Amino acid sequence: MWGKPLENLGFLIEEVSVLIIADLHLGYEDVLREEGLFVASQYPKMKEMILEMINEHSPDVLVVNGDFKHEFGEASLQEWVEVRDLIETLLKERVRLVFVRGNHDNFIVTLMKRYGLPLESEVKIEDYLFLHGHRPPSQTAEKIVIGHEHPSILLRDEFGTKFRYKAFLMGSYAGRELAVLPSMHPLATGTVVNREPAFISPLLTFTDIEEFTPYLVEPGITVKKFPKIKNLRNI
Asked: At what angle do helices 77-90 and 43-57 cross, to 10 degrees?
């Protein structure tokens, strides 16, 4: 396989020494609090997971593949604090930082410029293309990596108990190989791909999702390859 799904929810492409993470949605807890649900910030755990992957795999490049922050409008206080802390933490690491713009990443261009970090709509490294996934790609590459969909898989045990797992998806789009990354945020489980017929990413709308192979994740513990989506419909 051309990329390696990691138990800490990153995707490693060893050939070009690139580590990709997606959909951190920093500040999501602020939105939940406004809705009356009080949840502690998940940022410290995500930060720990990212640093663990960098230390273990020593990538040359870290791609943050969209939705660095959560709020569509102006950034909340929590977002400003966590976004700045993570950028300043990562700048101390021996890794080149690449930020891809997601549909939630409004009002942070000025902040990124303070650190000399551009916010790109797409990034191509050799024959690998990285984009968030809320829009179709504007260029071609043999292998494409997106986020946006927050894929998950729903399974039942012999007692009928339901379990929902974050999942990496490996398949194809327009004749190219496609990897779809799960959200790093613990509370963002997203689309249950073996149950829901509709997708939010236009790339998945025009693919044969039945032929995709999911890799289910127990964050921080393990990643396991499962049968194709078409074989998980009635489980």
From this structure: 10
The domain limits of the chain are: 4-231
Class of CATH domain 4-231: alpha beta
DSSP secondary structure string, 179-193?
EEPPPSSTT----BT
What's the token pair of residue 181? 């990354």
Task: Note whether 150 and 191 are within 8 A (CB).
Answer: yes
Q: What is the pLDDT of residues 85-105, one digit of tens each?
A: 999 999 999 999 999 998 766
* Long-range Cβ contact pairs of 162-167 (< 8 A, separation 24 or more): 164/189, 164/192, 165/216, 165/217, 165/218, 166/9, 166/216, 166/217, 166/219, 167/193, 167/214, 167/215, 167/216, 167/217, 167/226
pTM above 0.90, yes or no: yes
* CA neighbours closer than 13 Å in the CB half-sphere of residue 81: 9
